[in-house]
Uridine phosphorylase
Amino acid sequence: MSIHIEAKKGDIAETILLPGDPLRAKWIAETYLEETFCFNKIRNMFGYTGLYQGKPISVMGTGMGVPSISIYAHELITEYDVKNLIRVGSAGSYQKDIKLRDIVFAMAASSNSGLNTLRFNGADYAPTASFKLFQKALDIAKSKNIAIKAGNVLTSDEFYADNFESYKKWSEFGVLCVEMESAGLYTIAAKHQVEALSILTISDSLISGEHTTSKERETSFKDMIEIALELT
Ligand SMILES: O=P(O)(O)O[C@H]1O[C@H](CO)[C@@H](O)[C@H]1O
Ligand SMILES: O=c1cc[nH]c(=O)[nH]1
């Protein structure tokens, strides 16, 4: 048991899917896993382990933002020996050709979060995806005929920006979309020399103003989840 996770040693698989929303974790476990048990209810941050195509896999919510995912990633790696951490998140599009429900693999995560500025005494650090998981995820997507986009994303500390137009600078420099956790996840994984990848589904577009509902974000991002599950 760690401070934020009540699982026993051995309850959590080497590979874990990490949606921000704990109810998305519950939906993934109920929809895709067999012989499932719940290993965490602390703070309602539901975590489950089960079998996917006969192989053990876990899924747990992370909450929103870099501090929250950093706590869970740290405890999963250092207390439960997790080796592959795969975020399955929602994101807002920053590009005209990235539409609602498109899938984005985050090769790198730029950020306005203060955590790495603090960690590296004001210097820049470039949090990047695991090449191994990235390559494997590409192969899976190809074999399933699922089109994906890949590139730099923004991990932001704010969901509601004071200046809505501020996204345009990131957009001009090729950033594909915005979410709130990948830079934290990639940094903690790198620190402990384990693998991490963020797979994102576009839930909003800052360009067109379109968006999906909360229920759709909880239960309908199937292609992203099926790619992630096959990474076991
Ligand atoms: O859908 P999740 O995985 O929570 O991801 C995105 O959604 C939340 C904001 O609504 C933030 O956590 C952001 O990163
Ligand atoms: O962080 C996020 C996630 C989804 N959509 C956004 O606009 N921002």
Remarks:
- The CA atoms of residues 93 and 206 lie 6 Å apart.
